[in-house]
Fold this sequence. Notes:
By secondary structure, the protein is of the alpha+beta class. Helices cover 32% and strands 18% of the residues. The longest helix is centred in the first third of the chain and has 18 residues, at 2-19.
Amino acid sequence: MLRTLSRIALLALFTAAGAQAAVSVGQPAPDFSGVDTRGQTHSLSDFAGKTVVLEWTNHDCPYVVKHYSAGNMQRQQKAATEEGVIWLSVISSAPGKQGHVEPAEADRLTQSRNASPTAVILDPSGEIGRAYGARTTPHMYVIDGEGVLRYMGGIDDRPTTRKDDIAGATQYVEVALAELAAGQPVSTPVSRPYGCSVKY
């Protein structure tokens, strides 16, 4: 009986570990297919040859509010997309959970905040989020034109909700994009993500 229970516990442990796929910098990023707020389907493979940023977001999370209310996220979105980067904001909040929105509300939020992502992907099943192991909002990923993951982690190195901390922070995503554009390796390929838990 004890041996059977041990096997069940071990199986549960492996199942839980597999629920969030492991992704590694320097390895191909998981392909995905997601529908945006306009009903258009996007796959990572659609953007071959382009740098892609994935931004997990939840408008009710105070850490997300920090970067949007200060204009930091919008500034980086605008600068990146003007350079040809594809910036996808991903909402993985499940129905009934904090941050879940319908397409019209997501578009209203984008407009009211003057946000500039290429598209907002709705992932209510959490399939894309789990494929990337997205844990927090925000949680950021940078993928190069060959589909290789080059950065994952926080947007910066100041894990607070204080807007005043943005000015002195190292903006990891911005730095990674600049280094990739210059043909250089990303100096900080992994950092600790911070924010609210993704509400799967």
